[in-house]
Structure formats: structure tokens, C-alpha cells
Structure prediction request, 1038 residues.
Amino acid sequence: MLPYFTDIYGNPSSVHSIGRDAKRVIDTERAKIAEILGAKPREIFFTASGSEADNWAIKGVAAANRKKGNHIITTSIEHHAVLHTCQYLERQGFEVTYLPVDSYGKVSIEDVEKAVRKDTILISIMHANNEIGTIQPIAEIGELAKSKGIPFHTDAVQTTGTIPVNVKDLNVDMLSLSAHKFHGPKGIGVLYARNGRIGDNLIHGGAQEANKRAGTENIPYIVGMSTALQLAVENMEENRKKVQMLRDDIISFVLNNIDHVRLNGHPTDRLPGNANFSFNYIEGESLLLMLDMKGICASSGSACTSGSLDPSHVLLAIGLSHEVAHGSVRFSLSDENTQEDVDYLKEALPGIVKTLRNISPLYNGRKEGNNHV
Amino acid sequence: MLPYFTDIYGNPSSVHSIGRDAKRVIDTERAKIAEILGAKPREIFFTASGSEADNWAIKGVAAANRKKGNHIITTSIEHHAVLHTCQYLERQGFEVTYLPVDSYGKVSIEDVEKAVRKDTILISIMHANNEIGTIQPIAEIGELAKSKGIPFHTDAVQTTGTIPVNVKDLNVDMLSLSAHKFHGPKGIGVLYARNGRIGDNLIHGGAQEANKRAGTENIPYIVGMSTALQLAVENMEENRKKVQMLRDDIISFVLNNIDHVRLNGHPTDRLPGNANFSFNYIEGESLLLMLDMKGICASSGSACTSGSLDPSHVLLAIGLSHEVAHGSVRFSLSDENTQEDVDYLKEALPGIVKTLRNISPLYNGRKEGNNHV
Amino acid sequence: MYSEVVMDHFANPRNVGVIENPDGVGQVGNAKCGDIMKIYLKIENETIVDVKFQTFGCAAAIASSSMATEMIKGKSVDEALAITNKAVLEALQGLPPAKIHCSLLAEEAIHAAIMDYRLKTGGSVDNIRKCDGCCNACDIEHDHVV
Amino acid sequence: MYSEVVMDHFANPRNVGVIENPDGVGQVGNAKCGDIMKIYLKIENETIVDVKFQTFGCAAAIASSSMATEMIKGKSVDEALAITNKAVLEALQGLPPAKIHCSLLAEEAIHAAIMDYRLKTGGSVDNIRKCDGCCNACDIEHDHVV
Ligand SMILES: Cc1ncc(COP(=O)(O)O)c(C=O)c1O
Ligand SMILES: Cc1ncc(COP(=O)(O)O)c(C=O)c1O
Prediction:
């Protein structure tokens, strides 16, 4: 029972001994995460989310390079954390090129190269898409960016902990990740920045994170994220194989047993746990809710936009019509799923699709030869 | 054991049932916090820190009002989360007036009024200072701001949970708070905004927090913060009395038993747990470390700047010379401190001060009539 | 998110189907908006003796169709025209703000089906709305309760 | 943050005090910088037979003074001049980056005290630095190891 006359008990930025212990914990976890990513500890910056990391990377470079140029290259299928940030910057006078993708959701390197201008200050392209799972050729784009001398950021929120993510192999200058995607806590993330070089701060204030990101550190979540990442990486190969097998089982079942259905995303370059389908003639939310009533949780659109009524920008970008996009549902498998889960889904899904199609005037219209889709 | 084919298990923004439960938890806690602050639920926005809340309030208003005006009023004793944000905005072309304070650390309302210009878009003045504890006349400044039609933000990180903080009584349009100052978790805070009106987003992306602050919600910390605030408010009067008594015991002991010492901050309008002294002729970090070696944790400067060698901007702003500022130490008491703690401090402090003064050439210089201070 | 009544009408929708040779049929909405509602009426002596619907849309759209068809079954045509989306909303114990347009869609589908009936039978179409019910698709200022 | 050696020399500083009628005395730094170091020398036959110091400053400054005075005690004046801040740093098992200037301060204080001795005794001042050791206060480019 010793007296602590301080409101900064355990505040890692303070000089006293408890603060120093806290700082040591942070540094240890920072080093562990760095090693997993192929980075140096001083290149790892803790944030409170993947969204914050994306915003910081993009707005930071934009604000710091305004005089040098005002052109940013990204894609039309980024997560809203990137897309809405870029749209905001457009309102602030920046110019943004949103690269198209092919019907599998892939960006072409030629398109990236053609989009580069003298005043391009940043390229930001996601590693894998959260809705359709398509994995982009990040290493090749990174090489191109390097040859042009343009900083390259990737949103690796969907891939970190799931498939190998090494900043050197990927040729990236900045990379965002979020702990809750690999069973870590919700509310913590990382921005990796080569040589610790980011643009302007997003959050100014105290000297935390090498003066680059103010705010008292969230040590429990830093430890939680680091531990979760460690575990995810240790079991990555095993989990990847298992999850991919379950995913492929769902995909081949759906494609072989349900009519008028489309697999969205790339057939092979896709996240191991992602299966995204468009069921023609029915609407996704209804399908979701019927699955939910059977205890099966899936998602339509992306989690963040499910409050909205517009169909997913990603599905529109791969060329789906509005009506087909509306009928899309994503099954995201993790290592916690089992063959039993998959069998249960295979049991339930055809009947639900049939029920909803029976209610649908589009499906019946189709049968009458009056095809709306 | 039901199958969840989704990576958004429990993601409160999603439509399925688990997501809905999570959303309900957030809304419940939001309403509880709102009630305590005298606000409406839709005026409460969760952030990952007090720093983020400060940055968001100030940068948001600045970015959104660039065309209307570019003048901001704040004080010279703000926390770095406000000060460094304002300095950043100056580099971006904004003009900032840093109001002086008197020797007690008080801002004068006349100074605020004189600083107001046609193009003033924001006034940001902290409720109580984190180093010297001085409480500002926020309600009066708020009235002035209202009469001039200028949005008024206060950093209430130090006061929330410690003394009454009611947004209506304080006449503020925006208010920042941080959970760890009232025994809540580190890494969660709130920005209050009257009628939900903030300037531009700081973190763009998903639709969380009414589309105003993207990032998957940190539910455990939201619940932790709400519970901690509830407890702090329930016990506020009792704790305030107890803590204030301990503080006053330390203050009168130090002033009566140690020579060449000064109490920093206002004698009465100060945080109940703040006791900040300048011990002439010695240096604060040494004093801190000697206290630490006896198991007493205190702080010098502010926690965030203790990595730096410059003396606190707050102590310089109240008129201390660099040398006296260097010899300042803060004791921050909470309801967890006891009379025993205080007695232990009273036992240890005079000897430590004496030891360090004996090593000091300034103290000996003084005795020889060669007074450096 | 949804009331128990909505969930019941979504999970067990009443009056799903098609009426062969209907006296009136109306379709509103479009697939781009994410909602299509089609209503079939069997009318005898100005009384709605049978009604069926088909809906492409979210749970709120399906439940609104089901509830609205229940509400007009056995009513006179004029009584049916007097049923507003507000009444449907109330019967459903409310809908989330983003879904209120679905109740409007149900009102519009009824009006469209009755319009078809009136045009076929030469009756007055004065008290029938002509909006297609897709909120994003039309620029008409609505005086509905939304 | 600090090595055990630093903590030991801070908690139990060697050679604290004043030498009456010293052969050399030097003071560097200033209170504005947060560090002042004053060193007193007793010198016999070019040998430092006694040394005392007084320091206003952080733990690193106090430990650096203590260590530096230990290192020059019993040494010849020229040997003392050859002791750089790097040697002090090493003896202390390092200092945090922000505190390295404290070891420099110790080197400078020794130089200043020896300068005083040389000026009093008419010796050469060629190999003595004249920096006051306060890093923010002078614009000299240092070739010290920092
Ligand atoms: C007055 C004041 N404002 C802002 C902050 C920053 O809070 P946080 O550490 O939650 O970012 C602090 C805490 O250190 C503070 O005392
Ligand atoms: C690709 C991608 N980027 C960014 C995010 C945002 O992450 P967070 O919720 O941690 O802000 C997500 C998660 O929803 C994502 O899938």
C-alpha cells in the first residue's frame, strides 16, 4: 500500500516506475507485431481502429503534400474508411482517381500505371476486399509505385492474420490493420509506416506514439491485439486450409443446387473464408433475416452500410445490376466454423431461397416469360 | 451452437440479431451518459480518447467553416491535445489567439470578449487545468460566446466525474471527456455536441455514431466508461469532500514546513485533488524520482510532456521563471488516497527536498548571498 | 429492429400468391430500388372478396404487403382506398425510419390495383394516387405520413 | 528508463559538496535549461587529489556529476581532460537519448574547473573546451559523441 499522488497511475508516458513498466509492455508488444509484419518497431503505430489507420494514412499524406500535388489514386471497391476519406478530400480540393475493377473485382496494374500523374501524391489500394474477398496484386502495384516514387498504402484489414502479410514482400509504404478481424478486441488497430514516415498527424496532442498519435495508450487492447495476431499467424496455414475447404464446400453446393445464382469475387484469388453470392429474384435483407431466424448469421452489403438502402458499391463496381446486387449475401467463415455449420446451412438455404422466390413477382414474372432481371 | 457465417459477429452496425443486441447496449449506455451530462443521447459521440475528442471538435469546426472565418480563440494553458491542434491549424493558415492567464491560471472574460473578431469561428477553453488545477469560469464564457453566436468548446477531461459537469449549466456547444480520469478504461472518451452538430468528421468511413465517427464500436469500454461515470457521479460529493481535505492537509503542511516553496494554481477555484508546488533551487524530475524511490508517485510537468526537457507551458504561462518551473511537482489525489498516504508523504517530503537542496549550487549560492533565482 | 408483428407477417406472410383473372392488379416499385410489390384483387359488388400479393423486397416490404392485404380483405373498395400507410404502420407496430417507405409502397400498390379495377369497370379514379411508390424514383412531394 | 548504475549514483551521489579555497572551480549550464553543474578541484602536482560537486538538475545530471568526479579523482589534470562524455556515458551504462546532454555537461564542468585552475596557475588552456554545456544555449557544432 504505497501512496500514488498522481492521476496518471500507469500512464506509460510518465517518468515514474509504474509508467515505465507500462511503456515496456507497449514496446514489447510493438516489437512482436513488427516482427510478424516484417517491420521495425518504430514503424508500428497504434490506432483505435482500422478506420482511424486508413484516415490517418490518407489524410496525413494529403495534408502534408498539398503543395507537392493533389492527386490520389484508389479503387472503386475500397472500404468506406478509404472511400469516404477520399470523397472528403475531393470536397477539400483534391483530385481522386477511382480505378475500375473487372467482373472478379480485380484492379489491373496497367490501369494503375495509366492513372499516375506528375502530381500524384498517394496510391491506396486494399489488399483484399471485405465484401467479395478478391485479393489484389499488391506486391506488383507496390513495385510500380516504388518505381514512380509515389507512396503506397494498403488497407490490409481483411488479410492480416488470415493470409501472409509482410510489408516488405508487399512493397508497401503504409498498411492498415484492425485487431477484431483476427479475433482481437474491437477498438484497436495499427498503421504501419515505412521508416516511421507518415504525413501530418490525425490526432495532435501528447507525445505518445513517437509524437505522432496523441491519446493515453490502451494497453489491454494492445496486448490483446498482439496476442491474437500471434495466435492467428501460428495457426494460419492450418486454419486457412480448413476454412477454405468449408468455403469451397458451400460454393460448390450453392452453384450446383440453386438456380439463378452467381458467385461474386475471384474464383481463386479470394479470402479463404469469403463466399458471396447473388440470388436472383430475391432481396438480400429478407434472405438474411430468414437465415437469422434459423440461427444462421450472414451479412448483406457490408456491415457498415447495412443501415442504408443502397446496394453495395462493390457489387455495382463488378458490374451487377441494382436488382441483382440487392439479392446478394455474404458468408464469412472463420476457423471457428465447422463442417456441421456448413451442413446446417446447406440444409436450410435452398428452402429459404425457394420460399422467398415464391413470394417474388420477379421470379414468377420470369416463369411467365416476363423476365425483369 | 449455431453457425455464424460472418466476420461481423456482434458488429452493432449489422442487421442480424446479435448486431442488434450490441446496438441496444451502446444506445443504453449513450443515454445514461447523456443524462448525467444533461444532454440528449444523440448529442453523445464515442471517441477513443480525450485527445481525439479535442482534435475532432476543433479540426472539425475549422475545416467546416474555412469559408466563414479562420480565427480561433483558446488559452495558453490548454492541454497539448488542444494546443498542438491549434498550432497545427496555424500552419494550415488559421489564426489563433492564445489568451493569457493571471498568476493563478485564470482566464479573464474581458480578454475573451476583446479577442472576439468577426471571423472568429470557435472558442475552446478548458474547464480545469490538468497541471495546476485552476477551474475556469466556463458558464460565463459560454454566455458570452452564445451572445456573439460563436461555437464554444470546453475540454472537461479533468472535471468530468470529479466536479459537476452539466452541458446546459456550462453553456457549452461541445465538450470533451476521457474515461480514465474517472477510473474508467484508458482508450475511450466522448465528444458532446449540442444538437449533434459537429463540423467535419475526423474519421470518415462506416455509418457508426450517426455517420460521424467511423470504426467498429468498442462496446466493453463504452460500458466500462458509463459504469465508471455513474459511480463517480454517485459518490462525487462524498469523494470531493474527502479528497479536498487531504489536499488541503498537504498544501498547508508544505507551505508551513518547507521554505522557498510556492503553491501553483488558484487557492480555491481548483480541482479537489490537485496540489502543485514549485520547490525553489531543485529540479522536479530528481524530486519525483526520489519520491518514487520511497514508493510515492507524483508527476512533474504534465504526463504527456515528461519525455521532454522543456518546462511546462502552463507554469510559464502563470509567470514562473524557467528555473522555478523546473522545480515543480504535482500531487494528484483521488478517492483512493487515504490520510495514511498523506502522512507518509508529509514524513518523506521535507527530507528529500533538503537532500536535493544540499546538492544544489543554487541553494548554496543563495546562502552565500549569490542568489540565482 | 423489427416489431413482433412485423416479424410474424414476414415469417408467415398472409395472402401470398396470384389470383387468376383478377378484377384488379397493381404493381409498384422497381427492382433498382430494391422493392417491387404486386397486388391482385377479386372484387364483387364493390367489395374486396379476395386479395393476393407478391413482393420482392426486404422484411418490412413483405410484412407491409401481408398486413395491408389483411386490412383490405372484405372491405369495400372505397374503404380500402381510405387506408393510408399510417394505418399499415400502426398495425405493424411501427417500422424503422429507413423502412417507412415500405408501408407507403403497400398503400400505393393497393391504389394501383384499384385504379386497374376502376379503369376496367369505368369507375371514377379521382381518389386514387398514381405514385409508383419508389421513393427514390419519383420527385412528387408526398403528403403521406412518413 | 535509467540503468542501475545511474540510479545508484543518483540515490547515493559521490563527492557532493564544496571545497573551501579550491585550486579550480567551474560551473556550466544554467537554470533556464534545467541543469547547473559546479565542480571544485583540489590539485597537487598536477594531480586531482580531491573533487566535489553541486548539481541542480535531473537524475541523469546528478549521476553524471557523481560518476565524472569519481572518474577524475586521483588522475592527472591531462588525464582528466581526456575523459569525454562518452566515457562517462559508458561508465553509467548509458542514458536515455534525451538525457545524453547531461554527460556532456559533466565533461564541460570538468573542463571549466581545469580552465580556472590553469588560468590561476598560468598553464596552457589549449586543450580545454569553452562550451557552457547547455545544449539549447549555444550554437557551437559539437564533435562530442551524442
Ligand atoms: C485536460 C486534458 N485534456 C486532454 C487529455 C487527453 O486525454 P486522453 O489521454 O484520453 O487522450 C488529458 C489527459 O491527459 C487532459 O488532462
Ligand atoms: C477492408 C476494411 N477496412 C477497414 C475496416 C474498418 O475497420 P474498423 O472497424 O476497425 O475501423 C474494415 C472493417 O470493417 C474493413 O473490412
